[in-house]
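re: the backbone from monday

yeah here it is again, tokenized this time
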């Protein structure tokens, strides 16, 4: 049994979503960032973590890709050209979307007040819009980034689209908006949110 430690208003939702997509059974342990519950599993205090078979895994992308590889779902096999392209999408999602949102959060409410630079948000909004334009350039026929196959980077990108809205980053590219709406309408996300 997999046990996911974290809270749904965080990247933990990505792992829950992946588990629901794969129809795998799991338990949840509620933990807020930096709480004693997560510090017991991750000395950095970051959520999510996941335990399985006496082992602890951290970082939402590492956890999702571990699950995908282990069960041969939501991924192309390691060592294939398709997997390299899939991993490029994963890196793109993390570098261009996740990084903007995370930096905005850090300068909004996470860093000690004296180290925050609130004005950086304008630059991050501009960077986010540029990332949407780059998505448009890279995206093929769809419906997913890897064509007909729904894979891990789709979860990261669509999660970032939802996160952007709650962080008041207005989405600006119609192809990215359509894509995000399509991916976010999947039943597995609704189940993960209700879990
Ligand atoms: N790359 C990591 C980032 C984890 C992370 O920073 N999580 C946030 C919540 S979404 C957190 O726990 N932050 C607390 C902190 O940085 O102190 C992942 O994808 O899991």
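seq for it, each position gets an aa:
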């Amino acid at each position: 049994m997999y046990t996911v430690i974290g809270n749904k208003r965080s990247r933990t939702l990505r792992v829950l979503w992946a588990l629901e997509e794969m129809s795998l059974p799991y338990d949840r342990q509620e933990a807020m960032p930096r709480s004693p519950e997560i510090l017991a599993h991750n000395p950095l205090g970051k959520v999510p973590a996941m335990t399985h078979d006496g082992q602890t895994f951290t970082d939402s992308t590492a956890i999702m890709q571990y699950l995908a590889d282990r069960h041969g779902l939501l991924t192309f096999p390691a060592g294939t050209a398709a997997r390299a392209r899939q991993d490029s999408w994963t890196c793109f999602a993390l570098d261009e979307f996740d990084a903007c949102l995370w930096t905005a959060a850090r300068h909004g409410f996470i860093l000690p007040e004296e180290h925050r630079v609130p004005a950086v948000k304008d630059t991050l909004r501009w960077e986010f819009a540029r990332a949407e334009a780059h998505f448009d350039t890279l995206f093929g026929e769809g419906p997913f980034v890897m064509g007909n196959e729904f894979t891990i980077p789709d979860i990261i990108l669509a999660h970032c689209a939802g996160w952007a809205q709650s962080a008041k980053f207005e989405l600006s590219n119609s192809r990215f908006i359509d894509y995000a709406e399509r991916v976010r309408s999947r039943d597995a996300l609704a189940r993960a949110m209700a879990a």
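The helical segments are 12-21, 36-39, 60-71, 81-110, 120-138, 152-166, 174-184, 187-194. The mean pLDDT is 97.
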